[in-house]
């Protein structure tokens, strides 16, 4: 868990009702205040961030009209930038993913599109955090631990993570990487490691196949670690062809 240690969770409580208000003015004011609040030097706990994301989830839930919803999604992703440290930024993103995994099945079809766009924004923001750290291997690994961990959208076998959430993250993964890494500075061998592991370990066939499609995307720039990832993939594919258990169809 990429969470921080110091707790002042009681201070975050007033935001929750305001962020989930049916009144847009109230929600906008709460979001503006939250932006300032996140700049504090004192670290947030896991519980702090999960409480905040409960309110932020319903802030999006109450938003109407596509243009407003997309603007709000970008605003929510930009909250990451207010956190002082890389660890704080990753912890905030982790709380987002845990919230989405928990609430996914409660999202009705009429509201799904705005949450899909929100997810896209956060996939991109995760890459931006890595880019801000100059694509350091340790930062990428720290972030990928969140993605693979409990409640993470690329956790291969966490039954609490809905398959639809995994599939959508995989759908937009290379799109957002291409946008953020426009100068081709990232070593995609490391960036794609978490996807490779999902292709290897998921028990769901559709998830494995979608992960393999992302790995094979021709837009990916082959870097120094790419050869290692591809060789491992080829070895595992050969093993699968020998009759190992292929997982569930869906």
Automatic annotation (TrEMBL):
Domain of life according to the entry: Eukaryota
Keywords from UniProt, A to Z, are: Nucleus, rRNA processing
- Region feature Disordered, mapped onto this chain: 223-250
Indicate the principal place this protein occupies in or around the cell: nucleus
rRNA processing as UniProt keyword: yes
Q: Name one Pfam family in it.
A: Nop52
- Compositional bias (Acidic residues): 231-250
Which residue ranges run through the membrane? none
Q: Where does it localize? A: Nucleus
What does the sequence similarity comment in the record state about its family?
Belongs to the RRP1 family.
- What name has this protein been given in UniProt? Uncharacterized protein
């Amino acid at each position: 868990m990429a969470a921080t240690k110091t707790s002042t969770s009681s201070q975050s409580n007033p935001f929750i009702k305001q962020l989930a208000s049916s009144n847009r003015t109230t929600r906008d004011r709460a979001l503006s205040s939250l932006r300032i609040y996140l700049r504090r030097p004192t670290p947030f706990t896991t519980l702090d961030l999960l409480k905040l994301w409960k309110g932020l989830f319903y802030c999006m839930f109450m938003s109407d009209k596509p243009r407003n919803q997309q603007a709000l999604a970008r605003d929510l992703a930009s909250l990451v930038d207010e956190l002082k440290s890389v660890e704080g930024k990753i912890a905030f993103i982790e709380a987002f993913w845990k919230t989405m995994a928990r609430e996914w099945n409660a999202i009705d079809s009429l509201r799904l599109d705005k949450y899909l766009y929100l997810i896209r924004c956060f996939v991109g923001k995760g890459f931006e955090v890595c880019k801000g750290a100059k694509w350091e291997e340790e930062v990428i690994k720290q972030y990928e631990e969140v993605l693979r961990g409990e409640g993470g959208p690329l956790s291969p076998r966490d039954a609490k993570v809905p398959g639809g959430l995994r599939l959508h993250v995989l759908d937009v993964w290379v799109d957002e990487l291409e946008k953020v890494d426009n100068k081709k500075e990232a070593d995609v061998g490391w960036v794609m490691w978490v996807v490779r592991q999902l292709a290897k370990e998921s028990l769901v066939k559709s998830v494995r196949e979608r992960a393999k499609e992302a790995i094979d995307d021709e837009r990916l720039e082959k870097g120094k670690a790419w050869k290692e990832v591809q060789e491992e993939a080829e070895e595992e594919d050969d093993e699968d062809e020998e009759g190992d258990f292929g997982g569930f169809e869906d």
